[in-house]
Amino acid sequence: MKKIEVIIEKQDVNFFARIEGKGNYMPNGYGLTPKDALNNLKEIILDYQVNEGKDDKFWKKVDINTVEFELHYDLQAFFEEHDFLNITAIAKRSGINPALVRQYASGVKHPSIEQSKKLLGTIHQLGEQLQTISLHA
Description:
Elements: E1 3-11, E2 14-18, E3 28-31, H1 34-50, E4 68-73, H2 75-81, H3 87-94, H4 98-106, H5 113-131
Parallel strand pairs: 1-4
Antiparallel strand pairs: 1-2, 2-3
């Protein structure tokens, strides 16, 4: 099974799913949700394979029914998709000004690689902490 990196981005009301640096084609899908964008991306890839991409060495080997997408979110798409997360709490744990992270989440500003790594590290730490919780009924 082939694994392909997909970047999920948010612009206005739509999510976009794009693949870079694979073969001679850079597909971009879109939709109201990340799932819709991924479904559209698959349709676009299939259309390319059937039509103009028949000789594309990379894409002709991709089975659209078994391909696994490895998702990479921009911060705006991440916080939109995971709206149950508290942006202020994540910002404070990361040592970043909460107002700045809210601007990242709204798409007003874009984080540096360093800021993105800090936020990602905090999000991963939260996930690890949550996995250790046990509830008593």
